[in-house]
Amino acid sequence: MIVATKDDRNLQQVLDKIAGMDEPARAVMQRMHDVIVAAAPELKPRIWYGMPGYATSASSPVLVFFRNDERMSLGVSEKARLEPAGGRDGLLIPAAWYVEELDEVTEQRVAEIVRGAIEARSSSRA
Description:
It holds the Pfam family DUF1801. This is YdhG-like domain-containing protein. The chain starts with 5 loop residues before the first helix and ends with a helix. Helices cover 40% and strands 21% of the residues. It is built from 3 helices and 5 strands. The relative contact order is 0.16. It is α+β, with helices and mostly antiparallel strands. The protein has a 5-stranded antiparallel beta sheet. It has helices at residues 6-19, 25-39, 104-125, and strands at residues 44-48, 51-55, 62-68, 72-76, 96-99.
């Protein structure tokens, strides 16, 4: 008998959530999931506020997440240690991005955002 770990069950819940979405969102959100886990294989997927979220462990705070509500979006949670953008954006803190589809450039940017969230979290705990 194979016993599924909590991480396995959480992953399956995320995959089931994505599979239950209507097209074209399902394909975009599946690709978003694939990009996130490829960029940061150490992150553990789980459902967070009804949508896929990714954290360093099953019990740690979610760092990045995506949603499929009125629009599809990628977000970084406050647990990733957000900082003002500076420059012309002044004190605005970039924490969410809307997306309609993914292309190579967007996938690369998503991967950068995910890795940046992990680095910010790690450096804030050092």
